[in-house]
Write a structure and sequence with these properties.
Elements lengths: L1 H18 L16 E10 L2 E2 L10 E4 L4 E5 L10 E5 L7 E6 L4 E7 L2 E2 L2 E8 L8 E7 L3
């Protein structure tokens, strides 16, 4: 009788322990979709806000789903010509590479945060002179 009670208690303990195990729910990460038209909302040069010092309102970069990009109204940016782009990782990208038509490939680090409910892209780059660094914040136009 005592051994039967011990066995029942051990089974109950095993069931209780197993029912308390943490089960992770895996949600698959979706590839980052940057397709669409983007505009500059903030521009910094060497840590100083220069957004109001130049007209950034007309600049647009459009990323297409077929990995092509086009630029309207160029300004100092990572690239100045249209071309193709690629990201280092479709789900967790940290670098984007621009392949300008007839030019060289240019790579830049970028982040893809959500700010005030809107997706942004932040590009850090140095066009030419390494002592001048720029940080542009882009926001999707009419998401």
């Amino acid at each position: 009788m005592k051994s039967a009670l011990t066995i029942c208690l051990l089974i109950a303990l095993a069931v209780a322990v197993n029912s308390c195990k943490r089960k992770d729910i895996l949600v698959p990460e979706q590839p980052k979709d940057i397709s669409g038209e983007w505009r500059v909302t903030k521009a910094m040069r060497n840590g100083i806000d220069i957004t109001s010092l130049a007209d950034f309102t007309k600049f647009r970069i459009r990323f297409n789903a077929d990995k092509q990009y086009t630029i309207e109204n160029p300004l100092p940016f990572i690239v100045s010509k249209n071309g193709s782009y690629s990201m280092d990782d479709p789900k967790y990208p940290f670098r984007i590479t621009f392949n300008q038509t007839g030019g060289t490939a240019v790579s830049s680090g970028f982040t893809y945060p959500v700010v005030n409910g809107k997706r942004n892209m932040n590009f850090a780059f140095s066009p030419g002179c390494a002592s001048n660094t720029y940080l542009y914040t882009l926001e999707r136009v009419n998401p």
